[in-house]
Design goal:
With about 400 residues, the protein is mainly α. The chain is built from 18 helices and eight strands.
Length: about 400
């Protein structure tokens, strides 16, 4: 139930083809089409600024992570503020929602706050973004990395799409990378291409450990990753100076989250509350098949004015179409057996209750077995049987 989106804007023809393709993946157009950017992008500044302005502004940022300037960084800054003002306006609006989530987690783990701009270049702040390589969510986790970071990823649930849990996992992952490298530029590069590629680049450079020194030995995508990060940080901090304001949504939606450990289908919630299924999916993108698995607490995000209604109707919500939506998996299944002309099983064992006039020979003949097999199955040392006795009849 995830939506994979790709950028629609074209990148400057001056950029190499591989970079154009990469931007189509990195700089995703958000699927929420109700974000209005018309007023924010009508008069962006398109004048070329001197290098000294960019250098001074980057230097003025209150950042722990180094924000150096060069021609590559400049090209990406101009891409954002001159050729993609609409996207910057959208990112500013989305940042009002997501940045506080990122900031809280980053502060909790003692990480630099400017790392909140990583999801800007990873997913365009689209919580349901998917890459062609299988990365997903705001932080673009690959499935194996997500599981290693404690996120649940299976047929029913994919917590890479949960903004809170994915952010917590990303912070833990970034902190582990910093313990390895002790340098935030290398951490950011390793987040993109993995520690293995960073280690190879360090080795090929003769043991150098500065991003800009190992730059020629990095994968092509990663060479631009840190410059794009610097450019995105600049664009979102200095958008006003380029006459790019914050886009305005046509509607706003206040939400709240409740926990349930009961198996639940979003269609049951739609029926009881009237919230459209599409909106429920948007609020709960981690549930791949619209099912909360149950068995342990899982979050359900709803419009805040519907929380009370849900709590009051929870039992009836769980009962609605439960057999077809959530109770449609069989717990125990009897194996089919071959039968004879009388409908009796050909293999296995049946139980027979002895009646008046029965003897082992007649019973054995009726069930196409032998007296010896019946005796063995019932631990009998004689052929004498009693009325009402239960016999196991092997076939």
């Amino acid at each position: 139930m995830t939506l994979c989106v790709a950028a629609q804007d074209t990148v400057s023809a001056a950029l190499p083809v591989w970079q154009q393709t990469e931007f189509d993946r990195l700089l995703l157009e958000h699927s929420m089409q109700w974000i209005d950017t018309t007023a924010c992008t009508s008069q962006p500044l398109r004048d070329t600024l001197p290098d000294s302005v960019y250098i001074a502004r980057l230097k003025a940022l209150p950042c722990v992570i180094e924000m150096p300037y060069n021609n590559v960084v400049r090209s990406f800054i101009e891409m954002y503020v001159m050729r993609r003002p609409k996207q910057v306006a959208r990112l500013r609006m989305l940042g009002q929602y997501y940045f506080p989530i990122f900031e809280d987690a980053l502060h909790q783990y003692g990480l630099p706050e400017e790392l909140k701009y990583l999801p800007v270049i990873e997913s365009g702040l689209n919580p349901t973004a998917c890459s062609h390589m299988g990365a997903a969510g705001l932080w673009q986790f690959m499935p194996r990395t997500a599981k290693n970071c404690g996120l649940e990823v299976n047929s029913l649930i994919d917590e890479r799409f949960d903004p809170l849990k994915a952010t917590d996992a990303a912070c833990r992952f970034l902190k582990s990378l910093y313990r390895i490298y002790g340098d935030w530029n290398l951490v950011i590069a390793a987040y993109n291409c993995g520690p293995g590629n960073i280690n190879k680049a360090v080795h090929r450079s003769g043991g150098k450990t500065d991003f800009w020194d190992i730059y020629p030995y990095l994968p092509q995508e990663t060479r631009s990753y840190l410059p794009i990060f610097i450019a995105a940080t600049y664009a979102l901090n200095y958008a006003d100076e380029h006459n790019i304001c914050t886009a305005q949504p046509d509607r706003t939606l206040a939400t709240d989250t409740i926990q349930t450990d009961r198996r639940l289908h979003l269609l049951q919630v739609e029926h009881a509350t009237g919230i459209p299924l599409a909106e429920l999916r948007c609020l709960n993108p981690q549930y791949r098949m619209d099912i909360l698995p149950g068995g342990k607490p899982y979050p359900l995000c709803l419009p805040i004015d519907m929380i009370g209604a849900y709590i009051q109707q929870e039992d009836s919500i769980m009962a609605y179409l439960a057999d077809s939506l959530i109770n449609n998996r069989r717990d125990v299944i009897d194996l089919a057996q071959k039968t004879d002309a009388d409908g009796l099983p050909i293999s296995g064992t049946i139980t027979y209750k002895v009646k008046a006039g029965d003897n082992l020979g007649a019973i054995a003949k009726k069930y196409h077995t032998t007296v010896a097999k019946i005796q063995k199955a019932n631990h009998l040392n004689t052929t004498v049987i009693q009325i009402g006795q239960q016999l196991k009849i092997p076939r």
